[in-house]
Description:
By secondary structure, the protein is of the alpha+beta class. The two termini are 19 Å apart. It has a single domain, classed as GAF domain (Beta-Lactamase, 2-Layer Sandwich). The protein contains five helices and six strands, in the order αβββαβααββα. The mean pLDDT is 83. It has a six-stranded antiparallel β-sheet, sandwiched between helices. This is GAF domain-containing protein. It holds the Pfam family GAF_2. Residues 11-134 form the GAF domain. InterPro entries: GAF, GAF-like_dom_sf.
Amino acid sequence: MNKISTGQWMTQELERLCLSSDSDFGAFAQPVESDRLMRWTCEAGSRNRRISQMTVKPGVGAAGMALRLGRPYIVNGIGNDSAVRECPVMLAEKLLSAVAMPIPALTGHSAGGVLLLGRRSGLNYGEEDVRLLSAHIPGLLETMRAGLQK
């Protein structure tokens, strides 16, 4: 049996989350050691590879707002074009709605990461989607722990 890497497992988990939430895109960002920023480390459903060059800054975009507020943040773009224009990931991936969730830290960081799901269809996210994401947080934390122990 082949061992699966932490990155591969995270990508598979993102793909499962996208399927179960009718999302077209999913991404996970982790802290950059030397800064307050986070970098996107894995994604599923990307139409281009620009996200790997992007950072998450607190207060900027859906993921940045989830980090700043410390709670899930929803952007439903129909009728809220300014929120979409302020989110680099939503622009690059042509997402019309997104939900972001901060992931608790395993070490000294204020946050261990941020999870982002998005839809290109315009279907809005709601509280049920936040509950679905919350149910996956323990599994993501276990994967992060396993990655730290390697």
